[in-house]
Amino acid sequence: MQRSSVAAPTGRDVASDPIPGVGFLNTNEAAKFLSLSAKEMERMRRENRGPRWAKLSKKVVRYSVDDLREWVSEHFVANTAQGKALLSREGATA
Predict the structure, then answer these.
(1) Domain assignment present for 75
(2) N or C: which end of the chain has fewer CB within 10 A?
(3) Contact in structure between 69 and 57 (CB atoms under 8 Å)
(4) 77 lies in which domain range?
(5) Is residue 73 part of a domain?
(6) CA torsion, points 3, 4, 10, 11, in degrees to nearest 10?
(7) Residue 54 phi/psi, 5° resolution?
(8) Which of the residues in the chain have pLDDT under 70?
């Protein structure tokens, strides 16, 4: 089913929002929001790193849009050395 593009009262294109009016995303939507792959999101969950997430059932995981934005804001660095140090602290490879 294809969504039609409808202008929201703010002038934004509603079809460009992952889920208009809802502050939670599934793994695929969160990955798209962060420009990462769903597999990377799953890997980060397994390794206890990455943005906070909610486990709602055995198969249902959701991410808060606010938490995704906060996680990104915590990853701003001024240079490559800071980026490598940040990833190293998180247990990721640079």
Answers:
(1) yes
(2) N
(3) no
(4) 20-90
(5) yes
(6) 140
(7) -115, 130
(8) 1-22, 93-94
- Residues contacting residue 9 through CB under 8 Å, at least 6 positions apart: none
Q: 74 lies in a domain? A: yes
State how far the alpha carbon of 4 is from the alpha carbons of 1, 8, 12, 15, 37, in Å. Answer: 10, 12, 13, 7, 25
Does residue 3 belong to any structural domain of this protein? no
Beta carbons within 10 angstroms of residue 31's beta carbon: 18
pTM of the model: 0.69
Residue 31's domain is classified under what CATH number? 1.10.10
CA distances from 69 to 4, 34, 58, 73 (A): 26, 9, 25, 6
Per residue in 39-52, pLDDT tens? 999 999 999 999 99
- 26: three-class secondary structure by DSSP: coil
Query: Which amino acid type is present at position 6?
Result: V
The structural domain count of the chain equals 1
